[in-house]
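Tutorial, part two.
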Amino acid sequence: MNDFPEFDDLPDDPEVAFVRLYEKHSEEYRHRSDNAQDGRTAAVDFMNDMIGIAQGLGLEGFDNWTIPEDWDEIWPAFNNFDRALKRYVMEVKIKKSRVTKVYSVQLSPEDKQRIHHLIREIRDILASADLQDRKRDSLFNKLNAFEADVDRVRTRFDNATLMAIDIIGVVDKGTNILKPINELLRRIQAIMGNAKDGEPEQNQLPPPAERKKLPPPPKQITGPENNPFSRDLDDDIPF
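Running the prediction step on this input gives:
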């Protein structure tokens, strides 16, 4: 059992998970700073949260950033961190969108209509099959989710594969419905495959890139030892 269910829905990819959490925490930071006379506390909390999130996800480069000890140096440090963070997030988004494009396809309106028709045929077969209502409803939900993906600008191949695996895994191989369902799934895959073959060469897999790192700070900022953000806490808090 997960002790922290609020993180159950995080993507498996650590960079994508970081971007999702960045969007959440940056929105919280903006709300706090807009309603505060002095936004430095919110800025420090935001920096601390993002550094902790990065380290928890195993992302490199964030350990170069520190929270200033001098209260008067908070804004210069935060502005540098914020700019570097926004650039890092943008690089991750663009890189991931390129990879996603390789593993997805843009279907024509005609192809989408044909796939929707095939899904309706699968749904009709499942509706009359000897299945438990719970299993049938689960498969209907997966078909609905895939249909929604078909209507997007680009349809992901992994979603089509997972939908097919779920259906085949539930349908009893001893029944007479597996063969017609397999044929319908094959036709869906053929439509998507033919559409992918027609896409330009640049939609092929890009070369692997070095894992993105947050750019290092332009300088190390230090301050008086009697500051409330003393480095004495470094052993407990990984700033």
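The chain has two domains: 9-102+210-235, 107-198. In part three we will examine how such features are distributed along the chain.
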